[in-house]
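Worked problem 6 (solution included).
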Amino acid sequence: MSEVVAQRPFDGVIFLPGLLCDQKLFAPQLAALEGIYPTEAPNLGAYDTFEAMSAAVLEQTQFDRFALAGLSMGGALAMNMARWVPERVERLAILDANPGADDEKRRANRRRQIEDAHRIGVGELTRQELAKLYLAPANQTPAMIDTAVAMAEEHGVAVYERQQNALMSRASVREHLPLYKGNTLVLCGGLDILCLPEWHREMADLIPNASLKIIDGAGHLAPIEAPNEVNSAVLEWLGRERL
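Solution. The predicted structure is:
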């Protein structure tokens, strides 16, 4: 009797990091998936539009069909990629992200932040302002803040400006979300003040095959604030295929 070889439904998992973030943002998830699925966490620092970011991800990936997870900026990019190349995005995970476009108030704040980053440095901007927005109050520990600062400093001001420009120029994807039919995880920290839980409830209602997970006590950087809860949600989203 011949051995039946199980087939993975997709080739691997791509994690798209947020503004000024890198693979350290997803370190707990990358570790949890080791031996289960190949993973990638591309660097999105060289591009100033979502179109250019998407083209780079698709050019650089080794995967034909993939599960795509993104946080914040990466989540917004993931939603766009699910719209642009749905035949390649077999599953979608939207983490602490905004499906809408910036209004003028938010664009003005981004421009002010860019000016501050040039003036005091992106690491100091992260320490003084951004970390307090990223992390729930109980998670604003020296170690967590240092992680956010380290990621920012590794990117630098030029990357920050490019990524902010990409965010300011993006369009809303709300009207496109009902068209995506893949298995979708919508997840956020219950204390996220940048990408509100109510937005995630809306997205989960719009996407036909979505499940919603709101993590109590976590803020905007849920993957490192609540790694066990996020790992469990990600494994469930992937169907826990241990092949």
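Discussion: The chain has two domains: 12-100+171-237, 104-166.
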